[in-house]
Each structure stands twice: as structure tokens, then as C-alpha cells.
Amino acid sequence: MPGLAVIGHPVAHSRSPDMQTAALTELGLAGEWTYGAIDVAPEDFEATVAELAAAGEYAGVNITVPHKEAALAMADEASEGARAIGAANTLSFIDGRIAAANTDAGGLLNSLSHPLEGGRALVLGAGGAARAAIWGLADAGARVDVWNRTAERAETVAAELGARAVTDADPADYALIVNTTAVGLGGEDPFEHLPLSADSFVPGQVVVDMVYTDEPSGLLAAAEAAGAVTVDGLEMLVQQGALSLRIWTGEEPSLEAMRAAVRR
Ligand code: NAP
After folding, report:
1. CB of 151 closer than 6 angstroms to any ligand 1 atom
2. Reduced to 3 states, what is the DSSP secondary structure of residue 236?
3. Nearest to 177 by CA among 155, 209, 153, 199
4. What is the band of 184 on the pLDDT scale with cuts at 50, 70, 90?
5. In the beta sheet, which residues pair with residue 3?
6. How far apart are CA 123 and CA 134, in angstroms?
7. pLDDT tops 80 at residue 152
8. Tell me: the pLDDT tens digits for 23-56?
9. Which of 9, 124, 167, 181 to mutate to test the pocket of ligand 1 (most atoms within 8 A of CB)?
10. Do 89 and 62 contact (CB within 8 A), yes or no?
11. Is 68 an active-site residue?
């Protein structure tokens, strides 16, 4: 029975087992495949993954904060995206070897209904999720600006990934705005922490908030009120999870089943 699991922060992985199990059930694979959650401290991460890979009972694992960089570092091989991003959220165990991929970038792109080629995108943040967003958007042909609370980090990340660092931004200039910061996770007011104001969105613009919330986040509520198209963190969670499941099973999971499970 091939096992799958998510390893990482409890907040980040709390919905993944239900979501992936719903997809496996819909595919008729639930009797054969299982998907669970494993909590490990950073110091135990490498040994735990090495054990799972060697045991032969696991097909792979998803990885959340704070282990994504360590996951890439211990892999025997990695996709071009994972290498460029510098982090992996999907590991596959193949004959004892570990292959790394990053489905956060593809998950973000798949959650957008609008083509991006040539469009301007503003990425807020410079952590692991931002790196995936910047690489994915630039790869899809968008012109990407990066803003981060710690400006030097935005400069470093932008220079590495072919984007431009900005210290201020007029949201109306962008076809797409992606919040990859953790702002909103604790219910804080996004407009106190980000270079946006509640009335700064424009109709037709796409606004993504990667933070997972059941109710629309403060950011998305304001964007929607202005007529922007909004994508929440749960949709992106579904899209990145579906890409991981495709890698492991070779099957096309039901996004509808995954969406229903993640919002239950
Ligand atoms: P990370 O590497 O720890 O980066 C955190 C980022 O948030 C940094 O840019 C940090 O800025 C910024 N930040 C934190 N508190 C802030 C504040 N009060 N004001 C302004 N900026 C602040 O984390 P990550 O891996 O990139 O993840 C970020 C978020 O994305 C998390 O909430 C995670 O759950 C979510 N995420 C969601 C999905 C999904 O599928 N929906 C996928 C990946 C990640 P500094 O550099 O200044 O510290």
C-alpha cells in the first residue's frame, strides 16, 4: 500500500490529509493509497524523510514550512523549478532515491484564470512562497515586481529570479497582485502591514492571498468589493496538492472533490 503524507507546520498541513484522501477516494485509489500527516522538529526532518524513503512503503511526501529548503537539500534529484526556487514541497521516493519538485509555482498559475504573458504582477513577500510565485510568474511571461517588509530580502530574491524589487507600489498598475506574506494568518489588518490601502484595487485585476482562511481575508474582501477577481489560499492549496498527487499517481485528481474537502 503506497503511503503518502504531509510533513510540516500543523497550521499549514491541517487540511491536506482530508483533501488528498478525498481525491484518492474519487480516483478509486483510497483502498490502495493512504495520505497522513507527520509532525517533525527541524532537527529530525532529514532522518525522518530518509527513513520513509528507505522503508519502501511510502511513495512520497508533501513538505510545508519550515522544511521546504531542507527537503530540496537532501534530494538526489530535483526539477528545474525546485532548483530555481530553492525549495521543494513534493518529494517522491523512487527505488530509495528522493526526487524533489515544487508545485507551489504551478499551483499558483493553475489557480489563475487569466493569461499573464506580458502582464505586470506584484508579489508581496520574499520568503519561500514568494520565491515560488516569482519564479512561476516570470516563467509564464509576467513582468514581476517584488515588495517585502525587509527590503534587502526583496532585492536579493528579485535579482536572483529575474524580477524587480520595489519599496512602494501603486496597486492599480498591476494585472495581478499576490500576497505571499503571512499577514492575515493571525487575523491582523493587512492594510497596516502591506503597501496597499483598502480602496487601492481596480476592477478586473486579479488578487491572490496565499494565506488560508475560511472566510475571505481582509485583503480579498476589499479586492472583491472593488470588482477585482479574487483567489484565496485554499484554492491554491488545492491546485498545488493536485499537482503533487499527479506526480505520485500519474492520475488526474478531481479538483471539485478536493475543494469540497478543504472547505468542509
Ligand atoms: P516565510 O518563508 O516564513 O516568509 C514569510 C514572509 O512573510 C516574509 O516575506 C516576511 O517578511 C513576511 N511577513 C511576515 N510577517 C509580516 C508582517 N507582519 N508584515 C509584513 N510582512 C510579513 O513563509 P512562506 O513559506 O513564504 O509562507 C508564507 C505564507 O504563505 C504562509 O502563511 C503560508 O502558509 C502561505 N502559503 C500558502 C500556500 C498555499 O498553498 N495556499 C503555499 C505556500 C505558502 P520579512 O522578510 O520582512 O520577514
Report:
1. no
2. helix
3. 209
4. confident
5. 34, 58
6. 7
7. yes
8. 999 999 998 999 999 999 999 999 999 999 999 9
9. 181
10. yes
11. yes
